């Protein structure tokens, strides 16, 4: 299950066509030197605590590595990940330059600028090395693959009316009620309209909005993707209950499953959905998904080649599609983390 519904190849290739002019020639990648140790060997400091600038440095270094991994294997999820990560970093960078601080912010700015250079180069390379024929009927969907769509930060908040994390000891597979095609269709509906024009069909209203008690699993993360996109189209004020209340309901349900995965010691088969919970919970502004120890764990899963694998044993991790998906989700959330801690 793709983390944005698995857009069809037609959707993906349309975006490639639109971007061809700006990226007809790839440029060499010059990432910041990465001489960090392999997975599980990060030095997090003797006091088991690191400040904001170190968090940003760790997140951006890991993000650069995932970006380079995408050059070896990528798909449409990689482009969305690059858009989210780039948009989030550009937002925080603009905020820091608008409101300069007197502390160690220059090192943060340097890390973010270096990482943005790598992300742009990787994106150009991915677009340059693809050549497809495309229809014109699905152009609007690619608003969400534009980095400008993700230049935002929601007000920081905490999940309300939730039991303590240790309460959720066992992960229960949620019922998946949304298919990839349903998510794609509804995202296309809202993005093909002008900003502030918010009509959707009864079918999409039922699929995406009628179950606002929300659920966990990929259906829940797809709901959050739809809600964030609906809000970004200037349509959040049409929602009832309110946008904030819906976000809270959805994130609370995801949080119970997120905690259960932690309490079961992060089984490999559940790490992908765990990353989606962190990504969309973080984008929604919930601090519970944006903690230093969570970042520590996620970086420990990254292999020395920069990739994330569905199996701990890379020799047995043969499902390239799922490996690319996991790497893409991790890449996007690393951008969210770097942006969040840059502005603390």
**Low confidence ranges:** 7-50
Count of folded domains: 2
Distance between the termini: 33 Å
The counted number of beta strands is 0
The percent of residues in helical segments reads 40-55%
User: Sheet bearing the most strands, described?
Assistant: none
Overview of this structure, please?
The chain is built from eleven helices and no strands. The chain has 344 residues and is mainly α. It has two domains: 158 residues, no CATH class; 128 residues, no CATH class. The longest helix has 24 residues. About 13% of the residues have low confidence.
Explain briefly what this protein structure is.
The protein is mostly helical and 344 residues long. The chain is built from eleven helices and no strands. Helix 3 (76-98) runs antiparallel to helix 4 and helix 5 runs parallel beside helix 7 (217-232).
Topology readout:
Blueprint: H1 9-19, H2 52-70, H3 76-98, H4 105-128, H5 180-191, H6 202-209, H7 217-232, H8 243-263, H9 271-283, H10 292-300, H11 320-342
What key attributes describe this structure?
about 350 residues; mainly alpha; about 50% helix
